[in-house]
Amino acid sequence: MFNHILVPLDGSSLAECVLPHVITVAQAFNARVTLLRVFEQPRSSALSRAIDPLEWHLVKTEAEAYLNDTAAYLQGFGLQVQRTLKEGNAAEHIIEFAHQQELDLIILSSHGQSGLSGWNISSVVQKIILRSHISTLIVRAYQSPPKAPTSFGYKQLLVPLDGSQRAENALSPAMILSRFYSSQLLLAHLVSKPEMISRTPLTPHETNLVNQITERNKQEATLYLEQICSLSTAGLDPRLHIIEGNIRELHKLVELKDVDLVVLSAHGHSGVAKWPYGRVTLNFIVYGTTPLLIVQDLPRIEMEKTTAELIVREQKGH
């Protein structure tokens, strides 16, 4: 499933919050790890100045030493680690490297060298997750674990499902992690009330119709989760949650059950290849506060290019 993991680092302590997760995931999947450091030439707030070659050489030497130290730390946990250093635009080089090396998973810190902000993810992370089309684990830097934890693993894993085969792509990695670390697996199905278009309050008949459809959908969701359990989760004893309401209820479940990893497919039944993520997954990217593993359900070749991408490619003659 995940054989080769890419870990972009920028030398900041915020970015290092991914390291416990790198160890946790790599051990469970027996995956090799590549550390990637991309650094840009420093920018002056005024007119650009000439860069001292000696100063630039020292920066590169420090970056190499940092990667070597980080690799040694991970190797101490039995991981197979490679390291790569590149110069240029961070997001572009990370995406390009991930595609060239055919990586299975990117583990990203939500924030890095630029520091924490009011945005849930940094601009670099946003660019990577929108253009890489590769499974991604986002670690929230503002809720980072200790730098040197004494134990690894996840205690509570949540997999939201919607009855579609696409959403079920999240099950396999979640079950591997759950079995490896004896984690509690939570399966949730959100049932939203159908919308009734009306400029006036609903009549008793219309209200009754909404309730009937909602109850029918809850029963179907229960049967679906029970079937998933009987066919796919032998020995895991997952907890089933049928939730009525909107996406906010899923976030409440995360808090209530103290979930430490949410696992979602990039798309569910409402997702289309034109966009990189479906509605629920995008909501968790933007508003989630827990580490989020997004499992890509579509081959990169099937993802449609955005209008901006097509125009830029045309201008460059590609």
So, the CATH homologous superfamily of the largest domain? HUPs
- The sequence of SSEs as H and E is EHEHEHEHEEHEHEHEHEH
Q: What is the CATH T-level topology of the largest domain?
A: Rossmann fold
Radius of gyration: 22 Å
Low-confidence spans:
none
Task: List the domain count as a whole number.
Answer: 2
Per DSSP, the total helix count is 9
Coarse morphology: globular
Notes on the protein architecture:
The chain is of the alpha/beta class and 318 residues long. The protein has two domains: 1-41 and 53-152, HUPs (Rossmann fold, 3-Layer(aba) Sandwich); 156-287 and 298-318, Rossmann fold (3-Layer(aba) Sandwich), CATH 3.40.50. Helices cover 39% and strands 19% of the residues. It is built from nine helices and ten strands. A ten-stranded mixed beta sheet has the order 3-2-1-4-5-10-9-6-7-8, with helices on both faces. Helix 2 (53-75) links the parallel strand 2 (32-39) and strand 3. The radius of gyration is 22 Å and the shape is globular.
Which features would summarize this protein structure in a list?
Rossmann fold, 318 residues, 2 domains, 39% helix, ten-stranded mixed beta sheet
